[in-house]
Amino acid sequence: MVKPIVVGIIGAGRIGRLHADNLRVMPSFKLKSIAEAVVGEELLAWAESRNLGSVFVNGEDLLNDPEIEAVFICTPTDTHATWIEKAARAKKNIFCEKPISLSSAQTSRALKIVKEEGVLLQVGFNRRMDPSFRKLKQLVQSGELGKPHVVKITSRDPQPPGEAYVLSSGGMFMDMTIHDFDMARYLMGEEVIEVYTRGANLVDPMFGRCEDVDTAVITLTFASGAICVIDNSRKAVYGYDQRVEVFGSHGSATADNCRPTTVEVSTAASVTRDQPLHFFLERYNQAFTDEVAAFAQAVRLQEPIICSGIDGQQAERLAEAAKESHRTGLPVKLSHGAI
Ligand SMILES: NC(=O)c1ccc[n+]([C@@H]2O[C@H](COP(=O)([O-])OP(=O)(O)OC[C@H]3O[C@@H](n4cnc5c(N)ncnc54)[C@H](O)[C@@H]3O)[C@@H](O)[C@H]2O)c1
Description:
38% of the residues lie in helices and 24% in strands. The protein has 13 helices and 15 strands. It is globular, with a radius of gyration of 20 Å. The mean pLDDT is 96. By secondary structure, the protein is α/β, with parallel strands linked by helices. The chain starts with a strand and ends in a 6-residue tail after the last strand. The longest helix is centred in the last third of the chain and has 20 residues, at 309-328. The protein binds nicotinamide-adenine-dinucleotide (NAD).
């Protein structure tokens, strides 16, 4: 049996705890410690219920543990790059939640240090591992759909995040659409050459106060000429709406929403189905496990990283371009492959 990878998690909020619960039941990992800036009774009870040996307030204490081989960075976005640099210098392999940072200079610096130290970095674009989106990717790759012409991504949240989260998130394009930018690149297997955005503040004035949008349509043009349309909202009253279609010269393929059951109820009054699975924790449950399993294979078996630092960096470039296009009202051209 392959030796489990001893890991620590920095940041035990929503996503940190999700990864903790997944890592604990996976034989490829031994979750040893967490570091969390805000340690209260609730966190300690949570850590105890998971038999976690150490709870540090300072992530550097976790990085100083020579037994820990890999770290999961699950802190707010504006701290990721600093933790990547520290973890790389401590020679830990790194799984970092998306995005890598809020500035291209910081991301480049973090990636340079990762390269210098020769550690692995996987970025948490979990949707790449969703079984339905993987199938779409295979259909594109195999040529079954012919030459892709249009990709349509609908990505709407069931409820908006709080103001504090919005302020540290980098805004909707960097925080939420970034998954869709990565999905577009992943499905098409090529780079985007133009980004054009229409954004609006229609859900909650809080987003406007944070100089952010809560609604947007973004058009991406690929080097091949194919077009992608992404439509985003921070609030869909009927639930988490996550659909993707690839339309090509030989046909189209659609990944629909996932629902708790497939039952459809037809009466004289209506035809109804369950609402989509509530939110990302439920909808992408399998993908969160599978991305971590892929990380283990990269660390132990030298399999290729499923989502690299460069993938993270390219998605950030698209988010920056979307922001710029929203600001100016003009399309933004991107130089192809220039990183
Ligand atoms: N892949 C996904 O689908 C997905 C989903 C949600 C969030 N995320 C990403 O995960 C990150 C965290 O999001 P979240 O929703 O879990 O936020 P969160 O606020 O719930 O959790 C962040 C935690 O980090 C802690 N923290 C802050 N600074 C710290 C430090 N220096 N050291 C240790 N702990 C620190 C906070 O106290 C908090 O408990 C964000 O970058 C977000 O973009 C990814």
